[in-house]
Amino acid sequence: xxxxxxxxxxxxxxxxxxxxxxxxxxxxxxxxxxxxxxxxxxxxxxxxxxxxxxxxxxxxxxxxxxxxxxxxxxxxxxxxxxxxxxxxxxxxxxxxxxxxxxxxxxxxxxxxxxxxxxxxx
Length: 121
Fold this sequence. Notes:
Layout: H1 2-120
């Protein structure tokens, strides 16, 4: 009987130790679960913030691409206008050169005609 009491006492002590360990582990588990919930809330918050930033980035990217396209259209228009003016200038320069050549020929013919008239008088 004494031995059974010792074993019973020993088992009770071990049971108290194990119960204390279980309570301690439950507290640690509760703390970890609370920390995990907080981390999940923070993760959700960060994911929402990330999505908002991505939407803003895409919006800004679209706006900037539209501005680039608009500026490229302006550049193309200005280039076409410049080419038109260069072409027009070259055409007018050629016409002016041709007109000058005709004028010089007419002046020469006029001088010849005047000299011919003076000589016939």
